[in-house]
Amino acid sequence: MYKVGMILLKGLLGQQRNPREAIGWLKRAAERADAENPHALHELGLLYESAQPNDVIIRDEGYALQLFEQAANLGYKFSQFRLGCVYEYGSMGCPIDPRQSIMWYSRAATQGEHQSELALSGWYLTGSDGVLQQSARRPTCGRAKPRKQA
After folding, report:
1. Which listed residue, 24, 51, 113, 150, has the most CB atoms within 10 A of its CB?
2. What domain of life (predicted)?
3. Domain that includes residue 54, residue range
């Protein structure tokens, strides 16, 4: 259902783009989402977050946030990254919450989500009062430690 939805959404495999039908397929897939198949939740979240006035759906950031949360709780690293951003910048009607941002970025980073790794390093560089102490270590950028002179 997810794949059919994406094919119709993007007009792949020689199919005409059909956003209305695509969203129907994505919604069906989202209703059956689990840890193995959370993708439709995330894609629907992106669509509802960014919908424009002439789109087949109405922009609904609250609903988009719910979809991202469902996918993130199923372990989907891209939704976890999205929630890290939401709480870092206070978007989608959420307050800025460093603790939540760091938690979601950390979950995604442990799965190798590169943008989350970068965002998390930013939190370590700046720190956050009462949440995360600023890292005093400077990266060596892979260079070996200088040898002591004899």
Report:
1. 113
2. Eukaryota
3. 1-75
Cβ–Cβ < 8 Å for 22, 3: no
Domain assignment of residue 148, yes or no: no
CB 5 within 8 A of CB 43: yes
Same domain, yes or no, for 9 and 29?
A: yes
Q: pLDDT by residue (tens digit) across 3-39? A: 999 999 999 999 999 999 999 999 999 999 999 999 9
What does the DSSP assignment read for 80-116?
Answer: HHHHHHHHHHT-TTPPP-HHHHHHHHHHHHTTT-HHH
pTM of the predicted structure, to 2 decimals: 0.83
Q: What is the pLDDT of residues 85-133, one digit of tens each?
A: 999 999 999 999 999 999 999 999 999 999 999 998 887 777 667 766 6
Burial zone of 21 (CB within 10 Å; 0-12 exposed, 13-18 middle, 19+ buried): middle
